[in-house]
Structure formats: structure tokens, C-alpha cells
Design goal:
six-stranded mixed sheet; homodimer; four-stranded mixed sheet
Chain lengths: 245, 245
């Protein structure tokens, strides 16, 4: 008899993320999604040749790590804006040829917390729409294990675009048992798949970015499967391009 | 200038419900959904002439209240089964003509907790698919205020059927601003509206009830707008038929 396919679960919002550090995730692959914009920015940076991104929780932690890694760029945001004294904000459009060969120390609110909350998982990936096809290929090739999709959210609430991305990944991995959270994400994707950008613009974060004249960043992050790489967080906490399986 | 329409928000899962007691809900109408089965059972009991349902958190609390209300029936479940010494379980099919004119003290896991978590709201309603049309009519008639739809979930996780019911209610109240959680619920409903029963059977609770030979209860709870009443929790904590607005 063959083993049953391992389940896909989705963590919908920050209050659910708070419970993850106490959960045994050793047999699990975790994928964190912070589509607008932290994980989309990480994928963009890696696609543009960055060596790795160190997501850290606080501005103080970022400056402290900078002492150990003096060549690293400092990036991130608070309330959506670049942090004083930092080299870069949190827009993927800032992470172009300037990041080639560089390490980046990054602190954002929800994306960093989501990645850190699953750092004890068997494998920790940063996901986005930009690389979702490559992510699905990677997951199909790895030994079958439980998949936990972590939607970073906004402040303490669920973010539509993160759940949409989780749903799209689920649609690319058919045949696996789904929890109710995963069924919900898949239904959202099925409902919105004909126009992902429209869904992102309608979401709270999309509206907030539009109000700041940052529509182009929403458009950037809404493009599915345009970057062919997978981003994995190492035990030391650095998100790097994963070696193809 | 007219006021903007008040927002609809959806609380997706128990870890989010845990945050509600500290949130100011005084200007808010809260609707709790525990479709399989607690709130569906309450609506069925009221439709069959029960005077009121007292949702309490523990078995001990149920016995203590029974001393004050010796004529009340004891109902509820633990792990889906009737509690020892209680008159009734948590199946809506048990709440027929036998509940006419009676008060019921009820303890279930998630449904009770959801109702109690919003007891400080301006108005607290118990919702189900069974009475969802009446619920929408009631909400359209009341003075416009924020609407908080609370999905009771299962153990510590989101339950598909609760979010589906929230989504259906949202579809019946068009034109209001939606949070991302509310957009998600509405998308689920749009995706599943052609066969609500199929969605309930596919959900974790639906599968668990089927495994126990309780498919009929799932079918019962999946019927939309068959009971024309609204259930409101009083300040003392009793869920009664609301006086039509």
C-alpha cells in the first residue's frame, strides 16, 4: 500500500502564526508569503543576483548584524516607508542591479515574523507569485512531507494577497489532502485567478499602496511565475537561492 | 454628505477570536457562526418553539445554572457526543417538538466560546445558513453599524462551513466596505454557492460527521433560508428569538 499524500495546511493570519513556535514542524516544509511586499522583494533581489537576505525582527538587530556583515546593505520598512539610515526600503523596484553580489539585512513587520515563526521547520521557503511555478516544481521534487503555507498578513489581520498566493500554490500541487484553511485559499484562487492583479489592488495593502502612488509595485508583485528560482532560509537565518533539486 | 457605509469584518479562526474580548465592540453587531452544529441547532430549537438557549462554557457551569433554572433542558456535546446525564446532544435533529416552550442550557466547545467572546458587542446574534435570509433582512433594517462575523471554527482551526456562511451573509448585504477577511469569505461563497451541501460535506467537520453516520445533520445544516427568525443573545446571556425590527 502506498502512503497517503501529505496534507497541505494554510495559516491564515498573525494570531495563528503566534501559535507556530510551539508546534512541531520538524517533518514539515513551511512556505511564508508576504506578497505586498517583503517576500516578493526577496525573490526580486535574488533574481537580480543578491547573495542572500537576512530577515531580522528589529531595527536594532539589523544594525547589530551590520557590524558582523559590514558589506551588507540595510533594507526594510516601518509603516511602509524606508527606515532612517537604511540603504533600501521595501519596494521590489529598489532591488535591481544594485544588489548584485550583495547580502542584504532586512527588517519588515509581518514577513520577517512569519519566516521566524517557522524557523524550526524541516525546510523554510520564502514564497511569492513571482516564482510560484518554480516553487511548485521544487515542492513536487522534494520527498513528500506536510506542507504549511504561512500567510504573513498585515498588522494582526489576514491579508487577501497572501492567501491568494497560497491558493495558487495549492492549485499547482493537485491531489493532496487539504485542511479547511487550504480549501479556503484554493477557493479564493479559483475565484480570482482570471485577474490576480485586480485582487491585489482590491486588497487592503493594494489600496494603501495605490494611495501612496505605488500601484506599479502592486503590478510587479501580481505577476505569476516570472522568476525561476526558489528561496530557502538557512539554519543561520539567511534566505538564499536554493540549489535545484 | 452621507456617512460611508459601515464595514463588514470576518474573524476567521479561534486564535483570532481569542483577541476579541479586549476589542471595543460597543458600536458593533456581532454574528457568531458555528454551522456544524451549535448555532444551527440553536436556530432549529427556536424555530421549534424553544424559549431560549443559555450557552455556557463548561459542564460544571451547565449544572450550576440548572439549579437556578430547574425546568431547563441540558444540551450539548464534548468530542461531538452527548454529555453524560444531559437531556440532549448537539444534533439539530434532536431539537424538535420536545423543546417547545422550554429553556435549554447548552455547552459546546467552539460555538459557545465564539458567542461569549463577543458578549460585549452592541448586539450579539447567533447565525446559521438555516435563517440567513432573515438575518440579512434584520441587519438591513437595523441602524447602520460595523458588522463583525465570527467564525467559531473547530478546536484551534478555521472551519470552512463557518466562513462559507459568513460569505453568504456578506453576499446578501451588498455595497458595504469589506476587510480582507470579508473579501475572502465572499470569494469562498461565490465559489461554492451552487452546492452548499457539497462544501459542507467536504469540510473537516462534514467528513467527521459522515464518518459517524451523521450525514443527515450535515444536509440539515446546509439548507439556506428555511427558518424565518433571528436569534439574539441578551445581556444575561440567553439566546432568544429577536423581536422583528
Amino acid at each position: 500500500m502506498s502512503e497517503p499524500a501529505p496534507t497541505i495546511d494554510v495559516v491564515l493570519s498573525p494570531p495563528e502564526i503566534d501559535l507556530l513556535p510551539k508546534r512541531d514542524l520538524s517533518g514539515c516544509t513551511a512556505v511564508a508569503f508576504d506578497i505586498l511586499r517583503a517576500t516578493s522583494t526577496m525573490i526580486t533581489a535574488l533574481a537580480n543576483g543578491a547573495e542572500g537576505i537576512w530577515p531580522v525582527r528589529s531595527i536594532e538587530e539589523a544594525w547589530a548584524l551590520k557590524k558582523t556583515l559590514p558589506g551588507a546593505l540595510l533594507g526594510g520598512e516601518r509603516h511602509g516607508e524606508r527606515i532612517e539610515g537604511f540603504d533600501l526600503g521595501n519596494s521590489p523596484l529598489e532591488y535591481g542591479e544594485n544588489v548584485w553580489g550583495r547580502e542584504i539585512i532586512s527588517t519588515t513587520t509581518n514577513g520577517t515574523l512569519a519566516l521566524r515563526a517557522v524557523e524550526h521547520a524541516g525546510s523554510v521557503l520564502a514564497g511569492s507569485l513571482l516564482n510560484i511555478g518554480a516553487l511548485a516544481t521544487h515542492l513536487r521534487a522534494e520527498p513528500a512531507r506536510e506542507l504549511l503555507l504561512v500567510c504573513a498578513g498585515t498588522f494582526r489581520e489576514a491579508a487577501l494577497e497572501d492567501i491568494l498566493a497560497a491558493g495558487m500554490l495549492i492549485s499547482l500541487l493537485p491531489g493532496r489532502p487539504l485542511t479547511d484553511g487550504a480549501e479556503l485559499a484554493l477557493a479564493l484562487y479559483q475565484q480570482e485567478k482570471h485577474d490576480l492583479a485586480a485582487a491585489l489592488h482590491r486588497a487592503r495593502n493594494g489600496r494603501a499602496l495605490r494611495a501612496k502612488g505605488r500601484e506599479q509595485e502592486v503590478e510587479w508583485c501580481a505577476r505569476a511565475s516570472v522568476m525561476d528560482l526558489v528561496a530557502e532560509m538557512s539554519r543561520e537565518g539567511c534566505v538564499r537561492r536554493a540549489v535545484p533539486a
